[in-house]
Specification:
Layout lengths: L1 E7 L5 H21 L5 E7 L14 E4 L10 H15 L7 E6 L3 E2 L4 H7 L8 E3 L21 E5 H4 L11 H8 L8 E3 L5 E3 L7 E2 L1
Parallel strand pairs: 1-2, 1-4, 2-3, 6-8
Antiparallel strand pairs: 4-7, 5-9, 6-7, 9-10
Length: about 210
């Protein structure tokens, strides 16, 4: 089974975020349909408490947590806890493949990442990752200490091994670090994700 776990957090700039989330999630659904991906489930996570939001109208499973209220300013910590709670809530198996996507980000059509994911259950891969920072991507480096987590794929077993970040650490370092536990032949190090991202802003750029 492939689980597409979409992380969201609706707490300010709601009108802007609403349009971004709707666009990003609908584009993912379109990609899945266009690529004829089978045996999958989309789960949207929102971490500001149980309530009804526009996410419930997107025809996907929506899982609400309260992890945005955890006593930390590290958003990566909260996001990782969301994913771990989701794995537990939906009894996701260790060998199930999880695609984690930031909900505001927008996929291009027919990108390399999604084409790999399409047949991931028929491959040897346990991780599909773009190493390097989104500010300075380094596709030539195989084992790196940074990666882009706006779109990343990994089996549930290894996601559960990711260490919680310290208050001032970047969660991307810990996602990258856990890949050191994976047989190198089972890692697909991708050169281009084909997704438009806007970390910390509303200005999109392609990675």
């Amino acid at each position: 089974m492939i689980y597409f776990i979409i992380t969201t957090s609706i707490y300010n700039d709601c009108s802007i975020r609403e349009s971004q989330y709707i666009n990003g999630i609908n584009k993912l659904k379109q990609n899945i349909q266009d690529l004829n991906i089978e045996n999958y489930k989309i789960i949207i996570i929102e971490n500001n408490g149980v309530r009804y939001t526009f996410l419930n109208m997107l025809e996907c499973e929506v899982y609400y947590t309260s992890n945005n209220f955890l006593p930390t300013k590290n958003y990566g910590y909260k996001e990782l806890q969301d994913i771990l709670d989701c794995i537990d809530k939906y009894n996701i198996n260790d060998d199930d493949f999880i695609v984690k996507m930031t909900g505001r980000y927008v996929l291009n059509d027919n990108g390399e990442f999604m084409n790999i994911i399409k047949n991931i259950n028929n491959t040897k891969y346990e991780c599909v990752i773009k190493y390097g920072s989104y500010l300075n991507p380094n596709p030539s480096s195989y084992i790196n200490n940074d990666c882009i987590t706006g779109l990343i794929g990994m089996t549930s077993f290894y996601i559960k091994q990711i260490e919680k970040p310290k208050e001032n650490d970047c969660i991307e370092w810990n996602w990258s670090k856990v890949t050191h536990l994976i047989d190198g032949e089972k890692i697909y190090s991708i050169s281009k994700l084909d997704i438009n991202i806007c970390p910390g802003s509303n200005n999109y750029f392609l990675v």
